[in-house]
């Protein structure tokens, strides 16, 4: 009886993977950026090195999955001194925590067409939190060389202190140098794996 249950479970897993297509993030046509308030303005930055894989079940999108990884040492705000500071233990602690990772646990459609709530584990600076991120599916298409591609975009906000990124400076007139909330924008173009 146990063998039969295991065989059925193995069959279901094997056949479900047959319906999923794997798409690999094309870094040259994608971006991972962030924005944080600095005093009375906002400062933007990006990560230059990242990768991702999306398994897409077209017939049943809720059976799809995504993994995304960012190299923390690739942070780029257009200021070399600030980038070095962001890599220190005050912020990302890149030497001890070389990656920010996200791995989905569930995907659910919303009432809005092509918008999905993607829930998963976001790990940054060694801290893992379960988050739900609204992700817009931008469709499928073929490039001039016949490769199938898919597009996704998202905007979300995280509190950096939830991940142990606490550095700040008090201002003489009240308040702090940096906001706790960080806005994250990710735009992905992924190519179907051959």
Give structural notes.
The chain is mostly beta strands and 194 residues long. It has a single domain (21-192), classed as Beta Barrel (Lipocalin). The protein is 12% helix and 53% strand. The chain has two helices and eleven strands, in the order αββββββαβββββ. Strands 1-4-5-7-8-9-10-11 form an eight-stranded antiparallel beta barrel. Strand 9 and strand 10 (148-159) form a beta hairpin. The radius of gyration is 19 Å and the shape is elongated. The model is unreliable at 13-17 (pLDDT under 50).
Produce the secondary structure layout.
Blueprint: H1 2-18, E1 20-25, E2 31-38, E3 41-47, E4 50-57, E5 65-71, E6 75-76, H2 80-86, E7 99-109, E8 115-124, E9 127-142, E10 148-159, E11 178-192
Antiparallel strand pairs: 1-4, 1-11, 2-3, 2-11, 3-6, 4-5, 5-7, 7-8, 8-9, 9-10, 10-11
